[in-house]
From TrEMBL:
CDD domains: RaiA (cd00552). It comes from Oleispira antarctica RB-8. Residues 102-112 have a biased composition (Basic residues). Signal peptide: none annotated. The lineage of its organism: Bacteria, Pseudomonadati, Pseudomonadota, Gammaproteobacteria, Oceanospirillales. Residues 102-122 are annotated as: Disordered. This is Putative sigma 54 modulation protein/ribosomal protein S30EA.
Amino acid sequence: MKGLEISFRDIEHSDGIEQLIRDKAGKISSIYDSITGIRAVVAMPHNHSHKGKLAHVSLEIGLPGETVAITNDNHDNKAHEDMYVAVKDAFDVAQRKVRKIHEKRHDLKRRAGSAATPEIAE
C-alpha cells in the first residue's frame, strides 16, 4: 500500500510488528479505497513499574478532507503488554471510525441524489 508510514519509538524495530501493520493497513485500504495514507506510531513508553510496560499505538488515517486520529492508549489494559494485541486493537478502532465516516458520507450523497431528482408529474 502506498502512503504508509511506520515509526517505532522507545522500542526496537520489529519486522513482525511492521508486517502486521502492513497487513492491517492493506486490509482497511482495500475495504475503503478513499484512504489516502496511513501513519502508524508504535511505542513502549516508560510506565510506572507497578503497571508494567504497556504498548501505545497511534494511527492517523487520511481521508479526502479529513484525518482520522486513533490513539489507542489503554493504560489499564494488561493485554497491551503485547504489542501485537495493541496494534490489532488500534486497527479495530480505526476500522470502526472509518466505516462510520464512510457510511455518513454515503448517506449524505444518497440524500443529495434523491433531492436533486425531481418527481415526474403524470
